[in-house]
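User: Can you model how S-adenosylmethionine sits in this protein?
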Amino acid sequence: MNQLGIYVHVPWCRSRCHYCDFAIKVVGPNSSPEHHEYLKRLQSELLSRAGAYSGSLQSIYFGGGTPSLWEPSCIETIVGDITTKFGAATEITLEANPTDCTPEKLRQWKALGINRLSIGAQTTSKTALTQLGRDHKMGDGKQAVANAAKYFDNISVDLILGVPGSSVEKSFEELAEYSVDHISIYELTIEPNTVLKTRVDNGTFHPVAENMRVEEIEQIRRIALAHGFEHYEISSFAKNNKRSLHNQLYWNGKDYLGIGMGAASYRQTKNGAIRETNPRSYKSYMRNAPIDAEEIPWNENQKDLLWLALRTNHGVKTDKIPAEIANWLIDDNLVEQRDDGLYPTFRGFLFHNQIAARIAELD
Ligand SMILES: C[S@@+](CC[C@H](N)C(=O)[O-])C[C@H]1O[C@@H](n2cnc3c(N)ncnc32)[C@H](O)[C@@H]1O
Ligand code: SF4
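Assistant: Here's the modeled complex, given as structure tokens:
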């Protein structure tokens, strides 16, 4: 039976961070999220779309937005509905904002079946948090992890690299002291229509230059390996076998159903695959506006599966890539050959776009 994942998007945020262009709905200090209306809409979406998806459910992932803002009883209800439909998942992850990681909430999440927390610490530098427009303060990230460690034994932390004045190595070392077994490190991207884009354009924000970022990633990797982490995917480090089951479904080309505002879904078909994307606006989603569906031809899907697999150190079987292209990737030290497989090198992780571009040229 094929493996399956479910993604649930929880759209609310207290404010929009200066770098973020995700599908969110800002809920100001004087209003509260429509907890139950949103739950009802998700329940009806699940009911209408679940029939097209099947397989052995590995993972449920609550992403956002800020899932930690949602009433725990609503999370529990949708987990119950998903479990009734697809069976129990091995991994249930909730993305949490550091300020929400209070003992009370942590206890409730654990009781309702969440078994993995992904905490959006971003950095432990005060200046960087201000520049990023985050609502938490220096120290909140560490406190959140310390609190969470009393309830969870599978904690991941997100960090952002490329913010002037912040040292991801320092944040990494500080957080790795706690019970963190997974760290995701994302390079700061300046997205259109964000506060940071305006600041870059008017010269008041200068992201860290590309060559400095490469040096920093090299340093982080050294520190991570010294702490017993494995660099298993471009942006992901894990120890004690705590790789993200959910993200591995994406990289391994497994089917996933995404429900909620702006959520994406993917399933393989005999002709290739279908990718579906929900409306990104809250109003449209709540009104049940049509989902955007794109058919991916068989050939294109095979190429997607190859470059996705080469994001991770699992690599691909050598016979999946024509020798001419494999040799080019090996000569350029982007992949290495071991036994009957091709595996990305560290350089291949850094310049994965070159691997993807080369694979895109396949007939
Ligand atoms: C899906 S987001 C939302 C999670 C949660 N709301 C939070 O912010 O912690 C997951 C991660 O993407 C990363 N991210 C979002 N926008 C980014 C950007 N423009 N550049 C780099 N990383 C970004 C952040 O590290 C964030 O934790
Ligand atoms: S909390 Fe996360 S999803 Fe919300 S605005 Fe900030 S980065 Fe974006």
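A couple of observations from the model: The chain has a mean pLDDT of 95. The chain has two domains: 3-248, 315-363.
User: Helpful, thanks.
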